[in-house]
Amino acid sequence: ILIDCGARCGGRTKPAGAELLESINFSGGMSLRVGEETLTLENGLKLMRGQLAVVSGASGAGKTTLMESVLGFHPLLSGNVEVKCKNVFPWSLFYFLGQGFSNDSPKHSFYGERLAQLARITKKAVGSVILIDDPFMGMDAITKAKALDLLMVAKSEGATLFIVSNDKQLVDRADIWMVLSDNMIKLNKVS
């Protein structure tokens, strides 16, 4: 449910109860299947409201599968992902943008549309959880800078960001950096 908070948040819309999102908790021992392999998080992780977590790794390491597990699209083999909030249905706080090309439109319009999608999501998601798979996919430097600005403004206004990306600029701004390597989810606190 979205409510208009008008001038209080610069004309942006804010989800009702968004201030009640506390954290997303990943249990220690959590594991999931990635192809023929098992990906494991040995120690638990708590992603707090307003933090940025970036998930990096090689192609096929399980970055997208991990994001799909957070969204409930991909089952876990063990452990759990818990969204802690009060007095609100947690999934009403989530916004997701995956990788997707439109075969019937030229690439330049796809990248412009992807930036527009980011703008729509970040505008609505102040105080919510934004999950994005490779937000800068194929963008030129100018478009990427605009997209990065949108994400950082959303974070500064209380959005919690869970982003799949190998982009150094995002990693440098992350509170938590999750690196998928050798069938493990390795945690690095950045800031």
Features:
191 residues; alpha/beta
Overview of the structural elements:
It is a single chain. The protein is of the alpha/beta class and 191 residues long. The chain is built from 4 helices and 14 strands. It has helices spanning 63-70, 107-124, 141-156, 168-173; strands at 2-4, 13-15, 21-26, 30-34, 37-41, 45-48, 52-57, 76-78, 81-85, 94-97, 129-133, 160-164, 176-181, 184-189. The strands form 4 sheets. Strands 10-11-12-7-13-14 form a 6-stranded mixed β-sheet, with helices on both faces. It has a 3-stranded antiparallel β-sheet with strand order 6-3-9, with no helix packed on it. The radius of gyration is 16 Å and the shape is globular.
Low-confidence stretches: 1-19, 101-108
Spatial order of the strands in the main sheet?
10-11-12-7-13-14
SSE succession = EEEEEEEHEEEHEHEHEE
Number of E-state strands? 14
Sheet with the most strands, sense and barrel status: 6 strands, mixed
Helical amount: 25-40%
Alpha-beta classification: alpha/beta
Cα-to-Cα separation, first versus last residue: 32 Å
Number of helices: 4
Oligomeric description of these chains? single chain
How would you state the average pLDDT, rounded? 77
Strand content: 25-35%
